[in-house]
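Letters spell out the chain; the tokens describe the backbone. To illustrate:

===
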Amino acid sequence: MPAPQCVKIKQQWKGEMTMDQERLDEQLHDFIRLHRNTMRRFFQSCGMFNGHPVMLFVIRQNPGLTQKQLAEKLEIAPASAAISLRRMEEAGLVRRTSDERDHRAVHLYLTPAGLEMDNRCAQGKAFSTEILFRDFSPEELEALSGFLARMQKNLETTDIQDWRYTHEQTE
């Protein structure tokens, strides 16, 4: 069967995207939304809010880090980290310890309940990953990894100014 003809579509920003690219972009968007919602439902069933599982993981991997360091690692606002940490502390998952030398600094640690919750989250993620990649061959997983790495590199190496320049030239 011959490959489908790629029809160019003028987008609102006057760039061009083929039907295949548009379809893949929609599939990727739908997949990301489904994955996020599936994981959110699982974590909520464990009593966790969005973002908390990754915070537990980072704190477990970096015991004693500060709230500011946590926010930097997660690329979130310090205020957002503070709200989540307060909820996690109230739930008994995290404890804060003042720095003996700099009383303004507070170090973060998981409590035993936090360690247990992190283990549950890791088990849920492992189960999800097992389901997600069921029936994929090692070659298919390697190919997918390569495609995703290229897409990530494309995004990381693109400057929004390039898009703005192209956009202004086509008006």
Observations:
- Confidence is low (pLDDT under 50) at residues 1-14.
- DSSP finds seven helices and four strands in the chain.
- Strands lie at 8-10, 16-18, 94-98, 106-110.
